[in-house]
Amino acid sequence: MELSTCFASPEIYYSLACFTYILSGVFGAIIRWRHMCHPYSEQGDYFYPARRQVTFFYGAVVLQFPYVLCPSDPDAWFFARSFGIIFYPICFAVLFFRYFRMNNICNIQGLNKKAPLQPTLHLALSSFDCDVFLCNIS
User: Fold this and answer.
1) What is the mean pLDDT for each group of 10 consecutive residues in the chain (138 residues)?
2) Shortest CA distance to 23 belongs to which of 73, 75, 61, 69?
3) pTM of the entire structure?
């Protein structure tokens, strides 16, 4: 075991783990896009309305590929760490509204268009540090 850590840094293992995560996401996206069970395949949009969005969200983990290429870069590491914090709340909000057809239940038109905006706006506003703005004022 000591021999393998002598020649490789821990970042290589993290990079391979991220690459495995990306491959599994792409594989899941391909399976989700191509496969529907037989009795539900005739009316796929009715039985699984969020299939296209789920396919996109599975495949969007490819955006973490810069970390695979440069695992020791601090910017790539920061992007890989913050990707899930920003990405998954948006995914869950969009899929929730799409799957349960909230615009039909609540009689609100255009809710699916505004659904990604709400968690993004909340995260953007909550991530600002008030000390930065206060230091510039004084």
Assistant:
1) 63 91 94 84 79 88 91 89 88 82 54 56 52 42
2) 61
3) 0.64
